[in-house]
Records
---
Amino acid sequence: MKKVLYVDMDETVANFKERMIELFPFTEHIFNEEETYENGVIIEDCMFKSPRMFRDLEPIEGAVESVLRLSEFYDIYFLSTPFWEVPESFMDKRHWLEEHFGDMCYKRLILSHRKDLSMGSYLIDDRLANGSEKFTGEHIHFDTKEFPNWEVVEAYLMAKLKPTTVEGFNDKWSDYLEDRHYGLAFDDEEVIKYLDSEFEKEILVNPDFSYSQIKLKFGMSRVYAYSDKTNVWEEEIDKMLKGNNVI
Ligand SMILES: [Mg+2]
């Protein structure tokens, strides 16, 4: 089963700051300062003057591409805090997501002022407010030294998915494992890493991909999968297993 991954919107996938400064240049200094109540009032006041600004935000660099790629491996929901006093922001966030993420975001928007109440494995968020700090999974603090951009975030989350055991492998690929089959049946870390990397490439080019069994038969590997690469995989696996003295 895919792990649940929440993605914040403003300043994580949507460039709120850029649009705000474009509309109200005098707000620029606010984004370089600590969050204060007074600055919050100024920002809110600007939004009253331009309540539809959420419809026009540019995506953060790399965000759309990374989220779409990650959605192959994670169960992604957008978890965003709208501006309560600006009800237009509720509606425009939904429209904005559809425009940039298409079908991928269908019924995957959660608007909340208590992000800590949402259960899941990861939350990517640029702020600690509205429950992010108390999120019970792992908070990936976007736009910090550790996670400065989407390239780093995507690499981090993909690395989390690298299985090192048979169980981890079949768990990661469970959406592609045919019903009532056991999947990969022999334990060799080199083979697991190899097949994992091959499967990641395969799903990008083969929409019909699935597998049922990967096992040893008569001292050779057998890969049962809907792919025209099964022979290549078997040859490579056999080389690895010979090198590791398994066969
Ligand atoms: Mg944010």
---
Amino acid sequence: MIAPAHKLNARRLAALTATCALTSLALTALAACGSQSAPGAGSRDRTARTTVSAPPRPATLAPGPAGLTPVFKNAPRTPASTTPTVALTFDADMTADQGPRAAAGERFDNPALVRTLRREKVPATFFMTGRWAEEYPAQARSIGRDPLFEVANHSYSHYAFTDRCYGLPTVPASRMRADMERAFAAFRKAGVEHQVPYFRFPGGCYDKRSLRALAPGGVTAVQWDVVSGDAFATDADAVARQVLDGVRPGSVVVMHCTRSAAPTTERALRTIIPELRERGFRFVRVSEQIRAAGARG
Ligand SMILES: [Zn+2]
């Protein structure tokens, strides 16, 4: 847990699960990921929906089957005649037990990445853990008050919301919603203003139970259709290639805003941003894509 993360190349990462790029050591550090876990079907449970107490309410999807938390993956594929959109998303990962590592000098933030997005005027959605916001409150506030960006929830602890998720410690079902709300509270405390009711499961791992547990919170779960492979990557060109090969109109790309575990992401962006613009893509935040997907509200 204290040891440095293993290095994996993007090719191997892709081979691992076609999605998630994790070593056993990295598991608790950064569940980059793309689990293909699917919610169960056919539940008769009816879970009452209430609204999250404080966050503003941008567009969300209607509840899924049996009132479960809805899951968004990508926007509708637009016809060639319209401007295609792509949402770059950045997981700001820090787990609840990484405080000692941060105290020892490990950096879970990535200010250069944020600067590049600002310089290039690229809208983006940050999926932040509550623990990250506590460690870097000034950065959380700065990101969360920049109209370019929106801050979504990646749990407080970055522990798993399913029984098995790349070796991450597990959040009991009875604590899942509280873990999510604790992150929203951490954002508010840091001064984040552009908070959105979207939740990304650590490791991308979810099931019917976790979708049910979060349903009263009124969030939309956000997955992705393009895995950047930036977790523990050392070759920025390989990351850029993987993104550029994967993006289609309406895509959601998962990347990381965590220097220690995704050190090449900012460099990869310097290739990805101009190339996607050259192809005619418009960068948008996830909220715009959810609206396009037929959101309510
Ligand atoms: Zn994560």
